[in-house]
Design brief:
The protein contains ten helices and seven strands. Strands 1-2-3-4-5-7-6 form a seven-stranded mixed sheet, sandwiched between helices. A hairpin with a 4-residue loop joins strand 3 and strand 4. The protein has one domain: 3-Layer(aba) Sandwich (Aminopeptidase). By secondary structure, the chain is of the alpha+beta class. Pfam families: Acetyltransf_3 (PF13302). This is N-acetyltransferase domain-containing protein.
């Protein structure tokens, strides 16, 4: 991602974030941002928080300048050059079958387009599409953090390689990422979904302290709909459980 911006650069980014925050309020009022709305597949959380323009701008800035390397070794923002490797990783049904918001069909062209959209949303302070690589260079997993700055909320999706799942690394990695999202991005609410038959994810999510809130229909990128289990957790609830 390169170096972090200096004070002047951060001031400029904050001004941009404030302008984008105003644009997102226009979107909510139906006055603009059509292309951005069409790109967003994930639905915002059921709970609606009151968010000031200052908080919204701060979240956008935090997303746009986040150092994803602090999530762990081998993490980086996904780039178009990752498309071929990521497509091969996602082509494994053990990785992708349970995930609704992946580009389909899964191929290099669609994955590259997905990555480019992710870069655009990252610069707008709305998304972090992250790849994780082994020391050998092979893809070990990915994380897709969708952020709604105007709602002070985020959602996490992602997957790790089947071999890492069997080693029990998924739970520890997810907990670390949940905390990172609350602390680094500054959102006050997270929502998560999982397929109704995804018992492993449901157990992990509830063990982390997320509160079940029924179901919601999740729309895939190809327009098909999947009924999903749904959870939410506030930053205060996270702090109370995990300190």
């Amino acid at each position: 991602m390169g170096g972090h911006p200096g004070e002047r650069g951060r001031h400029g980014l904050l001004q941009q974030a404030r302008r984008r925050a105003a644009g997102s309020r226009d979107l909510a009022a139906g006055r603009g941002g059509v292309d951005e709305a069409r790109r967003l597949v994930s639905a915002p959380p059921k709970t609606v928080l009151e968010v000031s323009p200052e908080e919204e701008a701060a979240i956008r800035l935090a997303v746009a300048t986040a150092d994803v390397g602090t999530l762990g070794l081998g993490r980086a923002i996904a780039r178009p050059t990752d498309a071929a490797d990521l497509a091969r990783f996602l082509a494994d049904p053990r990785v992708s079958d349970a995930i609704y918001d992946l580009p389909r069909p899964i191929d290099e062209t669609n994955v590259r387009r997905w990555i480019v959209e992710g870069e655009t949303q990252w610069r707008a302070g709305r998304r972090l599409l992250i790849v994780s690589r082994e020391a050998t260079g092979e893809i070990a997993g990915y994380s897709d953090i969708t952020v709604w700055p105007e709602r002070s909320a985020a959602e996490l999706a992602g997957a790790i390689s089947p071999s890492r799942q069997n080693e029990g690394q998924g739970g520890a990695g997810a907990l670390h990422t949940f905390g990172w999202i609350f602390e680094t991005l500054g959102v006050r609410l997270m929502c998560l979904t999982a397929a109704t038959d995804n018992v492993r994810s449901a157990r992990l999510i509830e063990a982390a302290g997320f509160v079940p809130m029924g179901t919601r229909d999740a729309t895939r990128a190809d327009g098909t709909v999947r009924r999903s289990l749904y959870w939410e957790m506030t930053r205060d609830q996270w702090a109370e459980k995990w300190g």
